[in-house]
Amino acid sequence: MPDSAEQLQQLYVAGFDLQTFDRFPKAIGVLRDNCIAFLVPGPEGLQILGNVGWRMGESLGPLVEHHGRQIFLHKGEELEATPERIATLDKFKSDLKAILRGQAIQPSQQ
Is 60 exceeded by the pLDDT of residue 110? Predict the structure, then answer.
């Protein structure tokens, strides 16, 4: 089983911010470029809890299709899912999953 502390260190080194949230006391919030995921311990090390999405306040808005268009939605609050935001979310998600699998990631081209 991967060591959770080592996984968190790798996330931090890769530019992810780590935060705790009162609403999710058993999870660790992982943030980068306004994207957010919550991680919890699992049998294979840290795993993603629920969806990965855009940070909206103290929570996340998952990417959804609403009335024929893509948006990030949290409790009725909508945020347009621009191509740039979707690309940012895709990079966040792929980097996060790679690190949790113990793989190296490509440096960001920002």
Answer: no
Q: Are 79 and 60 in contact (CB under 8 A)?
A: no
pLDDT per position as a tens digit, 61-87: 999 998 999 999 999 899 999 999 999
Q: How many domains does the chain contain in total?
A: 1
Q: Return the structure tokens found at 95.
A: 């980097």
Indicate whether 86 belongs to any domain: yes
Does a structural domain hold residue 90?
yes
92 falls within a domain: yes
**Residues spanned by the domain of 79:** 4-100
1-17 b/e (C-beta count within 10 Å ≥ 16 → b) = eeeeeebbebbeebebe
pLDDT tens per residue, range 24-55: 899 999 999 999 999 999 988 999 999 999 99
Residue 36: both structure tokens together: 């957010």
Looking at the domain assignment, is residue 58 inside a domain? yes
* Helix, strand counts (H, E) of the chain: 2, 7
